[in-house]
Specification:
The complex is a heterodimer of chains A (618) and B (347).
Chain A (H helix, E strand, L loop, with lengths): L7 E3 L2 E9 L4 H14 L3 E7 L14 E9 L10 E6 L2 H7 L3 E10 L5 H6 L16 E5 L1 H8 L7 H5 L2 H13 L4 H10 L4 H21 L5 E3 L8 E7 H16 L3 E5 L6 H8 L7 E4 L3 H13 L3 E6 L1 H17 L3 E7 L16 H6 L8 E4 L6 H15 L2 E7 H5 L1 E5 L46 E3 L14 H17 L15 E8 L3 H13 L4 E6 L1 E3 L5 H6 L1 E8 L4 H9 L5 E5 L8 H14 L3
Parallel strand pairs in A: 1-8, 2-5, 5-6, 6-7, 10-11, 10-12, 12-13, 13-15, 14-15, 18-19, 18-21, 21-22
Antiparallel strand pairs in A: 2-4, 3-4, 3-16, 9-16, 14-20
Chain B lengths: L34 H15 L6 E5 L14 E4 L5 H11 L4 E7 H7 L1 H10 L3 E7 L34 H7 L4 E6 L3 H13 L4 E6 L11 H4 L4 H4 E3 L7 E2 L5 E6 L2 E6 L21 H8 L7 E8 L5 H15 L5 H5 L5 E3 L1
Parallel strand pairs in B: 1-2, 1-3, 3-4, 4-6, 5-6, 7-11
Antiparallel strand pairs in B: 5-11, 8-9, 9-10
Helix pairs in contact in B: 1-6, 3-4
The chains are: A alpha/beta (618), B alpha/beta (347).
């Protein structure tokens, strides 16, 4: 495949969004595009955007499924605010996504899909391809359906099979746009459709047809050249946050010698962790798909008592159901990791949209004085490391840990530099030794206040735990008032001590300045990029992104001290900012919040930060 | 007694006694409560089962029955209301080398924990459930439960209950239970025998124990257990033997078409040969269900092991799948996993 007449434009980064009817194969198209980008040496981040319904009515806005990919030679921190290229397979997807296209963006549409009925269903009065509404864009009207059919006519296949490969025509156009090769995509077809040779031929033929079409008709005003990213050397792969979470736990299991046990109930957007761990029985993972959320966590508590690295995975509504059992794990001081892949709430909310609004629930949502460790991953790739850290803290400190991720980083993907398991930190669970004459269920390590893990089957350690308050050290049921006070205080102190074992809070920028931007969890990329933009413009802005929330890093007070103003940005109505107001009340905190089920855009953040400088005349 | 042939659970190499299992905690049930007899039976049967004492594990929920683990010197979890079956599922799946016993009541397992109760049975996880059925909420002081007979006056039903009660046996068999037995707290010998059979069974064993709550539902089972009526009102099942009961041992159960009837030997030409012979191993639960459902005043109440059918257990299948995966998968460690699929080197 040679190319002619292309004017190549050199770019640092490009954002591409594939949109179509759910069932048009947009998720696969996006995934194949990103794999090819990765092998071309680019850094990238992806985000699938799909409806809650599996197949919403055909050609409606409700049924639009999308996949956004941000590729670049620079470090890619976000999936990109607005796209440079929008590939729209039908009128509904164009209508619902045009607002995410940059001014002057290239729109590639399947013009065959713009018939009267589809135009009306999308809510247009007239065809947007014929009126002047898209004049400010570089509109490419490609008869994708027709050309797809024509390209494989000689194969004499049924139209349904042929039409299903339309997405590969669009992908072919994109490969032309980036001057990429087909190799990895062809390899994918060969392995995926091994038993369906027809499908392999169709997909390959259509992909090439799309490429050749773009080349022949010179549909695109220019093509992109994105040179290789300067990425730290090493072995890489693409990974989603949910897969990274599952793998982090498997690594922690291997390093601690404690077998993985997951008790879980399917819930969007957390189910992929359950699905992933279910694949890895060869690594000894036991995965129990429970009858409900409560059984998921309760079975994990049972497994934890017997010495497993016990996990339960869920999203907000499921975390609500697990509250009472988390209290049992706090009372029995058993290790347990509860993953909450947050979604927009309350109640069922927006199941496929992302939010950070479960923080209060994670910190406070239980009866009694009931402290648990709360940590939050911030990128798809670092879900691996925070899952590992959550497991390490849970086992070494004998406590439940809530790991917060969200739909955005859980489903999104990123390049992941593959670590060696041997290079990960040691995990040393405090196992009690057989026949230890001094063993008592609530005897504690004097420094960490951690009790020992005495596994059933071990000689000389028979003991009972339970939800009733226990006598300090001895572990018998106790209703003594002063003992209860002691035990409440000990459980709290044990969690606070963990601050001595987690990293100090880092500041991106100078330790003092005019404005400290604070964020936590899955918003790191956008907030960091926005803060860096202000830094480049000479403003004295620094950024602190929190991953450890309960307890906070031990230098948090120091970090907050050095700035004239502090603004906390989060995808909720101010949960972390209020937590800081409670724990560090001496500061006046500004806040920037959004609850639209959407991630932050860099532009909205820079606008807000600049506004502070203007209004507050810093 | 027959030996237990469970190869998964390690046997004790010393002879154990009841004292090996008695805890030093004060037993705080009301004097005269039927739970005392159950505790004594469990402490008697554990040493007979023959496993190492460290391999016994008790799990309970909430309620009077659920204080049980504190009174036994074993490993144990006193859980939260209704969740004993869920906690125990995790215990057994994570460590199949443990002999797991659930202590639960009619409120704990038939009401708040009903979902977990039916699903542990459906999965056939190899645990033993001792269901203390006193037909009342005792620990919360006398509200009706899902097994309280219709019309009963309780604190929350001052005009009598208007709910149809569960028969736990029906629920167990409806959930595809492989083992169901019924005992009474007034017959410790039978109770001990049944518990031993429960331990011997591979899969979820449910033992319903008709237990008296002396404070809030005293004599609720008197029609079955009363000294003056018990011979006429109890059918004690023996596998392979005809179903005979009555003080004079002249009454029996006969299968007439598709239903059971009570007959008298020697009347209307009925002989022992006409009686139903108990087959607890029968795969089809039809007759087991009829036996489990027998109730006063038309029938005696069946005691003993009603069903003990052989099916694979969930925990065995988990181990099988893991063994197979370990033998066949290319991924032997997490480094293999991290480097599987599409990866590339950046220099």
């Amino acid at each position: 495949m040679s190319k002619k007449n292309s004017t190549a434009v050199e770019r640092d980064d490009v954002v591409v969004k594939f949109v179509g009817d759910s069932g048009d194969g947009m998720q696969l198209t996006g995934t194949l595009f990103s794999d090819t980008a990765a092998l071309a040496g680019l850094d990238l981040a992806t985000f699938p955007d799909y409806p809650a319904e599996i197949r919403a009515p055909h050609n409606t806005v409700a049924g639009v499924s999308g996949f956004q990919v941000h590729v670049g030679k620079k470090k890619i921190e976000t999936t990109g605010d607005l796209c440079d290229v929008l590939v729209a397979m039908n009128p509904a997807s164009l209508r619902s996504n045009l607002k995410w296209a940059k001014p002057g963006a290239t729109l590639i549409v399947d013009s065959d899909a713009f018939d009267d009925s589809a135009i009306k269903k999308a809510g247009y009065q007239t065809s947007p391809l014929e009126d002047a509404s898209l004049n400010s864009f570089n509109l490419v009207k490609a008869p994708i359906t027709m050309l797809t059919r024509a390209s494989v006519k000689h194969l004499d296949l049924d139209q349904k099979t042929v039409d299903k490969s339309k997405n590969m025509f669009a992908l072919g156009i994109m490969y032309h746009l980036f001057s990429w090769k087909f190799d990895t995509t062809f390899e994918f077809f060969d392995s995926k459709f091994k038993k369906k040779p027809d499908i392999i031929i169709v997909n390959k033929t259509v992909l090439e047809a799309g490429f050749n079409y773009a080349d022949t008709v010179e549909a695109l005003q220019s093509t992109y050249t994105v040179s290789k990213a300067s990425i730290q050397p090493g072995r890489y792969r693409n990974i989603t946050g949910n897969t990274a979470t599952a793998w982090g736990f498997l690594a922690a299991s291997e390093r601690s010698g404690r077998p993985v046990y997951l008790g879980s109930y399917p819930i969007t957007p957390a189910t992929d962790i359950l699905i992933e761990l279910a694949k890895h029985k060869s690594l000894g993972a036991k995965v129990f798909q429970a009858e409900d959320e409560i059984a998921g966590i309760c079975s994990a508590i049972g497994a934890s008592y017997t010495g497993s690295l016990a996990l339960t995975t869920t999203s907000g509504p499921g975390l609500s159901l697990k509250s009472e059992a988390i209290g049992l794990a706090v009372m029995t001081e058993l290790p347990l990791v509860i993953v909450d892949v947050q979604r927009a709430g309350p109640s069922t909310g927006l199941p496929t949209k992302s939010e950070q609004s479960d923080l209060y629930q994670a910190l406070f949502g239980r009866n009694g004085e009931c402290p648990v460790v709360v940590i939050a991953a911030s990128t798809a790739a670092n879900c691996f490391y925070y899952a590992y850290a959550a497991a390490k803290i849970a086992m070494e400190h004998m406590t439940p840990v809530i790991l917060l991720t969200d739909g955005y980083i859980g489903n999104g993907s990123q390049l992941f530099r593959i670590p060696k398991v041997a290079d990960l930190p040691d995990i040393n669970p405090p196992l009690a030794e057989a026949n230890d004459p001094d063993y008592k269920p609530y005897r504690r390590d004097p420094v960490t206040l951690v009790r020992q893990w005495a596994l059933p089957g071990t000689e000389g350690l028979r003991h009972r735990v339970g939800g009733l308050e226990k006598e300090n050290i001895i572990g018998n049921v106790s209703t003594d008032p002063l003992n209860h006070q002691i035990m409440v205080d000990l459980r709290e102190a044990k969690i606070q001590k963990i601050a001595d074992f987690i990293p100090e809070q880092e500041i991106n920028g100078e330790p003092t300045g005019d404005l400290l931007v604070i964020s936590w969890g899955g918003t790191q990329g956008a907030v960091q990029e926005a803060a860096e933009e202000l830094q480049k413009s000479g403003k004295k802005v620094s950024h602190a992104h929190f991953n450890y929330i309960m307890p906070l890093p031990r230098n948090t007070a120091q970090v907050l001290k050095g700035f004239g103003k502090i603004i906390v940005c989060e995808l909720n109505n101010g949960q972390f900012v209020n937590y800081l107001r409670m724990t560090h009340p001496q500061h006046n905190y500004l806040q920037h919040n959004k609850v639209q089920g959407l991630p932050f855009m860099v532009t909205e953040l820079t606008a807000r930060f600049n506004q502070i400088f203007e209004e507050e005349s810093i | 007694m027959i030996n237990i042939h469970n190869l998964t659970i390690e046997r004790s190499n010393v002879e154990l006694t009841k004292d090996d299992f008695v805890s030093d905690q004060m037993v705080k049930w009301c004097p005269g409560c039927g739970a005392h007899a159950i505790l004594s039976s469990v402490a008697n049967v554990f040493p007979k089962i023959g496993y190492r004492k460290e391999n016994f594990m008790l799990v309970s929920g909430i309620g009077c029955s659920s204080r049980f683990p504190y009174y036994m010197n074993t490993y144990g979890i006193h859980g939260i209301h209704g969740r004993a079956a869920a906690i125990a599922s995790g215990v057994k799946v994570a460590n199949p080398h443990l002999s797991v016993w659930i202590n639960t009541g009619d409120g704990d397992s038939m009401a708040i924990g009903g979902n977990h109760f039916i699903h542990i049975i459906r999965r056939n996880i190899d645990v033993n459930i001792l269901l203390f059925n006193n037909q009342i909420y005792g620990l919360t002081k006398g509200q009706y439960s899902p097994t309280t007979p219709m019309g009963s006056i309780t604190k929350t039903s001052p005009q009598g209950t208007i709910e149809h009660p569960f028969n736990p046996g029906e629920l167990v068999l409806g959930a595809q239970g492989t083992f169901f037995a019924r005992a009474v707290d007034t017959n410790p010998k039978l109770m001990t025998e049944i518990m031993f059979e429960a331990a011997r069974h591979d899969g979820t064993s449910v033992v319903e124990i008709l237990q008296n709550c002396i404070i809030f539902a005293d004599k609720t089972h008197e029609g079955v257990t009363g000294k003056d009526v018990r011979d006429e009102h109890q059918l004690i099942l023996k596998n392979g033997e005809p179903m005979i009961f009555g003080k004079a041992r002249n009454k029996g159960i006969h299968l007439l078409g598709s239903r059971l009837e009570v007959v008298t030997i020697g009347e209307n030409g009925i002989t022992e040969d006409d009686l139903l012979v108990h087959d607890k191993y029968q795969q089809d639960p039809g007759v087991h269900l009829m036996i489990a459902k027998m109730s006063l005043p038309h029938y005696p109440v069946a005691l003993g092991v009603i069903r003990a059918a052989m099916y694979p257990t969930y925990d065995d299948l988990v181990e099988e799948q893991i063994t197979y995966a370990k033998a066949t998968s290319k991924i032997k460690c997490v480094d293999d996993l991290l480097n599987s699929g599409d990866t590339w080197e950046i220099k």
